[in-house]
Amino acid sequence: MSKLPDVKTSIFSIMSKMAAEYQAINLSQGFPNFPVDEKLTTIMARLSRENVHQYTPMAGYPLLLHQISKLVERSYDRILNPETEILVTAGATQGIFTTIMALVNSGDEVIILDPSYDCYEAPVLLSQATPVRIPLHDDYSPNWERIATACTSKIRMIIITNPHNPTGKILSNKDIESLETILEKHPNIILLSDEVYEYITFEDKHISAHTRKKIRNRCVMISSFGKSFHITGWKIGYVVAPEALMIEIKKVHQFLVFSVNSLSQMAISEYIDIVDLSEIKKRYQAKRDYFKELLISSRFDLLSCEGTYFQVASYAKISQENDVDFCKRLITEFGVAAIPISTFYADGSDLKLIRFCFAKDNNTLKEAALRLCKV
């Protein structure tokens, strides 16, 4: 008997497979196709010839833990204890899975805001808990009244994604204040803040839970080197949590992966000191603006993108077919792969919206736009 009877093949796998089959430009999965910083690959090449290939300590390579604490201090003016409040994980997804398995118990409920990334619900179900899926407003702002009403004594955790995938929205100060009010009324609720796109924001910076003293001591933060340094295949991220929660998270982590790739940890621990994080924002903002400019003559309506490397577009002026069928036809007839937004909703809400990934080199974006302008 299946533990996850309703879980099917990921839409990302489906669209990427179709893209390969039809030789379409793949703007569906969120991975960059341009080269990694040569400074990082040079470090990796040098270290690969050194004695760095055995297990690191379970929580992470000590120098990397220290470097992460410095990074958080520089970015958010928050002081962390690297030994007790930071955990290096095999990607952000493993950090999310581990956190939920460690802190959510049978019979608990977990609030997930739709549209939501597809890795949140499975560990909730495997914990024999119940996901409470609450849709965002049509402008993708949270429905705080509905969230507050849902916060019964059974709610163990609220999951937020900021900057938000798939919509590219960031939470406003008013949103954060509303969240703080809810958490103040419900002291047993833990916040899981997925901030993997924290260094990819544009006109305004996102407001990190790291900066909010009212909630950060009951919050588990999820970050991703894969997203920040466009090294998604390295599968390396980190979790920040107060010591009492981290003790429980580490208990699960040690039996799930024990420790993360040693070479990646050591390379990143050197790279953090020389990378310019402001350049990450500039690169992706330039790509967002370039892609938007290329699509001006298309029939797609582009929604505002405040962060991440995803552009949501409405095709309502083009077709009334459902978004899954439209995305499949986009591949087979026009040679571009995108992701249908309905797949991020528990109820399959179809607002005629699709998601493009613009983390691609300019030639790829230009060719994709040429094809999209013919739709």
Structure overview:
- The chain contains 13 helices and 13 strands.
- The protein has 375 residues and is an alpha/beta fold.
- It folds into 2 domains: 11-36 and 277-372, Aspartate Aminotransferase, domain 1; 38-271, Aspartate Aminotransferase, domain 2, CATH 3.40.640.
- The strands form 3 sheets. It has a 7-stranded mixed sheet, with helices on both faces.
- α2 packs across α10 (262-271).
- The longest helix has 18 residues, at 277-294.
- The N and C termini lie far apart (44 Å).
- Keywords: Aminotransferase, Pyridoxal phosphate, Transferase.
- One of its GO terms (molecular function) is transaminase activity.
- Residues 24-371 form the Aminotransferase class I/classII large domain.
Main features:
375 residues, alpha/beta, Aspartate Aminotransferase, domain 1, Aspartate Aminotransferase, domain 2, 2 domains, seven-stranded mixed β-sheet, four-stranded antiparallel β-sheet, 13 helices, 13 strands, 15% strand, globular, pyridoxal phosphate, aminotransferase, transferase, Kynurenine-oxoglutarate_AT, Methionine aminotransferase
